Amino acid sequence: MVGHRAHALRRQMVADWWAAMQRHGEQPPVMLAARRADVAALNRSARELLAASGVRGEEFAVGDRVIALRNAWRLGC
Q1: 68: Cβ contacts below 8 Å, ≥ 6 apart
Q2: What is the 3-state secondary structure (H, E, C) of 26-74?
Q3: Where are the chain's structural domains?
């Protein structure tokens, strides 16, 4: 993918990732970026898209900030 604006490229990458997420029966898609700032931006955009579509994940990733106010036994904590 070639482009002049990083923001437009990230937006297209997230759109392509989302389209691939809709195809069931395939390996889950991944997005790759060289810079941490781009990785953070891609993650933020993907999570916003998931939340907007009503998908609520309960998985945590490296770098996530988690605040536990009480035990959540259904999560195995």
Answers
A1: 77
A2: CCCCCCCCCCHHHHHHHHHHHHHHHHHCCCCCCCCCCCCCCCCCCCCHH
A3: 6-75
d(CA 9, CA 13): 6
Does residue 23 sit in helix, strand or coil? coil
28 vs 63: CA distance, rounded Å? 21
- At 18-72, the pLDDT tens digits run 999 999 888 889 999 999 989 999 999 998 898 888 876 667 777 777 777 777 7
Contacts of 3-7 spanning 24+ positions with Cβ under 8 A: 6/38
Q: Which amino acid does the sequence have at 68?
A: A
- pTM of this prediction? 0.66
The CA distances from residue 39 to 15, 24, 36, 72, in Å, are 15, 24, 5, 29
